Amino acid sequence: MNIGTAARLSGISAKMIRHYEELGLVAGRRLLNGYRDYGESDVATLRFIRHARALAFPLEDVRKLLALWGDRNRASADVRRIALDHVAALEGKAQAMQAMASSLRHLAKHCCGDDRPDCPILDELEKTL
After folding, report:
1. Domain 1-55 annotated CATH 1.10.220.10
2. What is the C-alpha to C-alpha distance for residues 40 and 1, in angstroms, rounded to an integer?
3. pLDDT of residue 128
4. Three-state secondary structure along the chain?
5. Average pLDDT of the chain to the nearest whole number
6. The pLDDT value given to residue 36
7. What is the torsional sign of CA 66, 17, 55, 9?
8. What is the pLDDT, as a whole number, of residue 35?
9. What tens digit of pLDDT does each residue of 85-123 get?
10. Which of 9, 28, 30, 63 fits 38 for a cystine, CB–CB 3.0-4.6 Å?
11. Can you list the pairs that 64-73 forms with residues at least 24 positions away whose Cβ atoms lie under 8 Å?
């Protein structure tokens, strides 16, 4: 099938399919006329990538998961480790974002929000870290 059909069936744009192909995550073949050709297994791989990216797995983890997915001798412990490492990274990011939101909430609470130019938010942003 052509790239447009693969894009429609996988839910990934043709541009991203080309990108994933350049990264070696999917390997569509080239026809003699230079067009890309994809099979059902390529579409399944693209769907796998789409689902992994929807869960915010970094591309390097997607590469590892694809390798494990294709390895029938894999240990599920390897997959679990990648998933739990990703959970820890997501939780760390969520905590950092909560801290940022709390800091901004505090600054906004102390800003009068009136016609005066004094603003603790801008004063804080002016500080060097």
Report:
1. no
2. 9
3. 67
4. CCHHHHHHHHCCCHHHHHHHHHCCCCCCEECCCCCEECCHHHHHHHHHHHHHHHCCCCHHHHHHHHHHHCCCCCCHHHHHHHHHHHHHHHHHHHHHHHHHHHHHHHHHHCCCCCCCCCCHHHHHHHCCC
5. 94
6. 87
7. negative
8. 84
9. 999 999 999 999 999 999 999 999 988 888 888 898 998
10. 28
11. 66/25
- Quick one: tokens of 36? 């890309």
Nearest to residue 52, comparing CAs of 62, 64, 37?
A: 62
Name the residue type at position 42.
D
In this structure, how many other beta carbons lie within 10 angstroms of the beta carbon of residue 45? 22
In which residue are the tokens 């390997």 written?
27
